[in-house]
């Protein structure tokens, strides 16, 4: 009985860890996408500024 409870508890801990890992990975991916979008926008604004001054 004790072994079954221990296995279930360990399984739940691993499952929570895996879900948390996926959540963290998704957050990092979303942050990276937002940074890339912002950087592209800034680059486009700078290019536009350079072209309009020429």
Please render the helix and strand layout as text.
Elements: H1 2-53
Beta-strand percent range:
under 5%
- Count of strand segments: 0
Number of helices: 1
Radius of gyration: 23 Å
Residue share in helix: over 70%
Largest sheet: none
Q: What is the distance, rounded to the nearest whole angstrom, between the alpha carbons of the first and last residues?
A: 80 Å
| SSE series | H
**What is the mean pLDDT?**
91
Multimerization status: single chain
Structural class: mainly alpha
In the predicted model, the low-confidence regions spanning at least 5 consecutive residues are none
Overall shape: rod-shaped
Explained architecture:
The chain is mainly α. The chain contains one helix and no strands.
Label this structure with key terms:
single chain; 54 residues; mainly alpha; 1 helix
Give a summary of the structure in a few sentences.
It contains one helix and no strands. The chain has one helix at residues 2-53.
């Amino acid at each position: 009985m004790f072994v079954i409870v221990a296995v279930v508890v360990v399984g739940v801990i691993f499952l929570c860890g895996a879900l948390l890992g996926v959540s963290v990975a998704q957050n990092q991916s979303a942050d990276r996408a937002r940074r890339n979008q912002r950087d592209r926008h800034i680059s486009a604004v700078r290019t536009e500024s350079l072209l309009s001054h020429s």
